[in-house]
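During the reporting period the student researcher (J.K.) took over the structure-prediction task from the postdoctoral fellow and processed the backlog of single-chain submissions. One of the processed entries is reproduced below for the supervisory committee.
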Amino acid sequence: MGVVDELVERVDDQDRVLGVVVSRWEAIREGWLHRVAVTVCRDERGRILVHRRSEQVSRFPGLYEVEVGGAANVGESYEQAAARELAEELGIRALPRLLFTFVNRSGLSPHWLGVHEAVVPDAVVPDPDEVAWHGWLTELELRSALLEWRFTPDSNEAFSRYLAFRAARS
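J.K. obtained the following structure tokens:
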């Protein structure tokens, strides 16, 4: 689905729904806060799924991503949006766990980003319209890749916060 077709709810600087429904394209163009849900996917061995976006997607074509996700639709919680995106993009059913939220000012426009984690099977079947390549990397391999490959702005910001969150919890 293209950016123009998605309907999102505007939220305020405290992540409260304002009751205003707009297209995601309009929210991006106007710089209005809205919600986006992403999931860092790990396998049973702790490796992290990394993928390269298809050249056909409207935002950040051909760039790599650490997380899977997208905008929360009208009435969706972060968790519901994250689960829907996992099904759409990777063809899997999983219950992602919301770890934290923050206002992400990197990327096309500011938005609230809900960062989740899920353990998923090694054998994912990505949607070829969304994902051109995918692979499993260790944290060390991923840290190197973040320095060498071209990642989306959300990937760098979300993953550094994800690592800090995990470090604080251990």
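The committee noted the following: The longest strand covers residues 111-119.
J.K. will present the remaining backlog at the next meeting.
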